[in-house]
Design goal:
alpha+beta; 7 strands; two-stranded antiparallel ribbon; single chain
Length: 147
């Protein structure tokens, strides 16, 4: 084995983690990582800077017991929680960094519009800021306020 001082270490696959500017360390064992990680690794090894497109928000989609689930972002244990909708039917759970309006994650259960909105919200370079009271209302769209 050849050791090169100060050389970057690059790992790919299920055991790899990546550093997200928005979410900190996130797991890399997602199928989307398998598609994107090789190009990111080559760019890194050749001395290239990280690109905004390299920092996708963590996400998971699944069908469980007949319900469609979509999770975007990375909730933390101390985040504040807001629920949209009726947990007996279709609903979404929003996590906000404790005491702030900074959205860290969205879990949507049978709410495809909230999944699409969460994807857009987490496409930016920073975590989105939302008015908790507004987005908690059932009829309000899940989106950042317009400037």
């Amino acid at each position: 084995m050849l050791a090169v001082p100060d050389a970057p270490v690059v790992a790919l696959g299920d055991l790899a983690r990546r550093r997200s500017a928005r979410h900190g360390w996130v797991p890399g064992g997602h199928w989307d990582g398998a598609l994107r990680a090789p190009g990111v690794a080559v760019r890194r090894l050749l001395g290239g800077a990280p690109q905004p497109a390299d920092d996708l928000a963590p996400y998971v989609f699944s069908t469980q017991l007949g319900h469609e689930l979509g999770l975007y972002g990375a909730p933390a244990a101390d985040d504040d929680v807001v629920v949209r909708g009726d947990v007996e039917g279709a609903f979404s759970v929003l996590w906000f960094a404790a005491g702030t309006d900074r959205l860290t994650a969205v879990l949507a259960v049978d709410r495809p519009r909230d999944v699409a909105a969460a994807r857009k919200l987490f496409a930016g370079a920073t975590l989105p800021h939302l008015d908790r009271d507004v987005v908690a209302e059932e009829g309000q769209p899940l989106r950042a306020p317009r400037a």
